[in-house]
Hints:
There is one protein chain. The protein is of the alpha+beta class and about 270 residues long. Helix content is about 25%, strand content about 30%. The strands form three sheets. Strands 1, 2, 3, 4, 5 and 6 form a six-stranded antiparallel beta sheet that branches.
Amino acid sequence: MSDCIAIRLNQGPKLTWFTAPADPPPKDAAVVVQTKRGLEIGTVRSDVMPRDPARGEFVRVAESDDLRQQEALDAKANDLLWLARSRAREVLPDERIKIVSASFSLDERVLTITYSTEAKPDLRFLVQAVRPYTEARVELVNVGPRDEARVIGTLGACGSGSCSSTWLQSFSTVSIRMARDQQLPLNPDKISGTCGRLMCCLQYEHDMYRELVKNLPKKGSKACHAHSGACGKVVKVHALDQSVDLKTDDGYLERVPKDELVSPSRNDRSER
Length: 272
């Protein structure tokens, strides 16, 4: 393993590990690094740590000229972004394609245009559209809905920045079963993020919910209240406070703690 530092590049929260210099820069310092795209500016987000493998080389702490160059390139990339969006609407009016972002490497050798679509359109017209304005090599990258949210930056249902655009390093599988286990309403508007996919946060507490419901009766099963003797059907379980909603045979709805529940057979024996 080699000594590395984590650096956040210009888009999204993802950290990339680069070989650390002999005199590592402090956290939050702007630095220039060598990536597959060429030179890029990023922000230091960690101390030196052993990692393997490193994804690139540290070049230098960013100087004022580097920052001015990046600012000018960002403005130029933004202009080309709107040009690309306009051309996409002209050439592919019926295709559901979204031009998400455009960015230059610091040496202006590479222009990366990210787009989102489920189709497979011929996008050579985008290269032709920007060619008169830059000599950079144009790379077209198709991203999924979650990566699109990461690049653009969105708000979550909690009111804070979405996990994908603020801190999440990778995307895990999220299933509708997770929402069911947590007894969330199976309404797409309630359990979907701004990307249109199931919210990443459904997975965070799922294991705990599964552990909490292990000792609770299943929804739809029969149970009795040990104190009152009332029996009925479990219509809802409350994992966090370890209780259930019991609809009794008399039509009443009671919330009963788990410790006060008995099976119908045990209740019959106690009465005898």
